[in-house]
Amino acid sequence: MAEPASTPPQGAHEFLLRRTPDQILGPFYPVRRTPDRTGDLTQGGRAQGLVLHISGTITRLDGTPVEGAEIQVWQANRHGRYRHDGDVSAEPLDPHFEGFGELVTGADGRYAFTTIKPVAYRTSPTTWRPAHIHFRVTTQLEQFVTQMYFEGDPYNETDPFLRSARRPEALIVALQPPAPGQAPESRRIEFNIALATG
Ligand SMILES: [Fe+2]
Q: Which residues constitute the domain of residue 79?
């Protein structure tokens, strides 16, 4: 493996970042399934829903990138249903969406994947979880689990898991216009994660 850069890369912070808040693993971690490793969770047919291009950088608190971090992502489909035996929701599965991917960061700490926007799902007759995507990051020194949420979701305000985070705003992302070359109806998201040790 390459030696880590001895000096912080351009754009690194001169002050310490604040560590990204962690969140629970949740009941729908895909224990018995094989993740997609292509970086495109919408392929294999065309998954239903708004296509999202999600990317970001995994860093240490000094802003230096973490190379070779393994990232697992899992999520509900565009009906709010997980492909998981434990999800007893009446919502339909999408035959073209597995909702489970695995990525590895490059030397610049970057990751990127394409997926669809999940929607909120019911957790009891009166409670809903806001739309979110689960992230599990494994490095040589650390295992970190969190959830990424979407700006404007009406359930963000009442979700006990998001509200339990020390800085909920660090877990909420905004949809941005697509980059050149991406489908005009798709959206782009940047979600950076600062690890305590890296
Ligand atoms: Fe979830």
A: 51-195
Torsion (CA) 119, 120, 125, 127 in degrees, nearest 10: 180
- Structure pTM? 0.92
User: How confident is the model over 61-76, as pLDDT tens digits?
Assistant: 999 999 999 999 999 9
Task: Provide the 3-class DSSP secondary structure of residue 162.
Answer: helix
- Give a yes or no: residue 147 inside a domain: yes
What is the whole-number distance in angstroms between the Cα of residue 181 and the centre of ligand 1? 30
Mean per-residue pLDDT, 81-97: 95
What pLDDT score was predicted for residue 3? 47
Assign 3-state DSSP to the chain and report helix, strand, coil percentages, each to 5: 5, 30, 65
Residue 12 is assigned to a structural domain of this protein: no
- Separation of CA 65 and ligand 1 centre (Å): 27
How far is 84 from 29, CA to CA, in rounded Å? 8
Q: What is the CATH number of the domain that holds 126?
A: 2.60.130.10
Q: Is 121 a catalytic residue?
A: yes
3-class DSSP assignment, residue 136: strand
Residue 97 pLDDT > 60, yes or no? yes
DSSP letter, residue 171: G
Which residues on neighbouring strands pair with residue 36, listed in sequence order?
101
Total count of domains within the chain: 1
> What pLDDT was estimated at residue 9?
53
